[in-house]
Design a protein that fits this description.
Elements: H1 2-17, H2 20-37, H3 41-44, E1 50-55, H4 61-72, E2 78-80, E3 86-91, H5 93-124, H6 140-154
Antiparallel strand pairs: 1-3, 2-3
Helix pairs in contact: 1-2, 4-5, 5-6
């Protein structure tokens, strides 16, 4: 029975988080599976909502809140605590783990993209760049990053600096 219950819980998670046809099919399959194996739907969705407190820096709060909404499909389950940057989240434990996992992934990806944007900005505005101090040609990976920055710079708008003399 435990094996069937575990499978039903996995189907339930897919039914909650799936999109479009995947979600609908998971819901139908879950209903059939539970009926066939005599499992009560309440047993499947036994996770209770809990309160979790997190500390998020000012500059990344927008990313964390959007991640919470993406996972929970709600926009009213985050509250500011009395301490700066501390927030209380109402969700299940599995949602909390998923929120933090996705947030960490997005934060890492954002850091990479911001570095690329910084390089493109420097290229676009012809701001002095540190040279390759090793004297070796860039690796294939580094060269690809440089090429991406040049493509990004081509699409950036710019406003020329006007030197003002008094």
């Amino acid at each position: 029975m435990d094996n069937h219950l575990d499978l039903a819980k996995k189907l339930n998670e897919l039914a909650k988080r799936g999109e479009g046809g995947e979600k609908i099919n998971a819901q139908k399959l879950l209903a059939k599976f539970c009926a066939k194996h005599g499992i009560n739907i309440d047993e499947v969705d036994d996770e209770k909502t809990q309160s979790f407190t997190v500390k998020i820096p000012d500059e990344l709060q927008w990313l964390y809140f959007r991640t919470v909404g993406q996972v929970t499909q709600k926009d009213n389950n985050v509250w500011n605590q009395r301490k700066r940057n501390h927030f209380r989240i109402e969700c299940t434990e599995s949602e909390f783990v998923l929120i933090n996992s996705i947030y960490d992934h997005y934060k890492k990806e954002l850091g990479k993209q911001l570095e690329l944007l910084k390089t493109a900005f420097i290229i676009k505005h012809r701001i002095w760049m540190d040279g390759n101090s090793t004297g070796k040609p860039p690796s294939a990976e580094e060269q690809e990053r440089i090429n991406k920055a040049f493509r990004m710079a081509e699409n950036m708008e710019t406003e020329s600096y006007q030197k003002r003399l008094k």
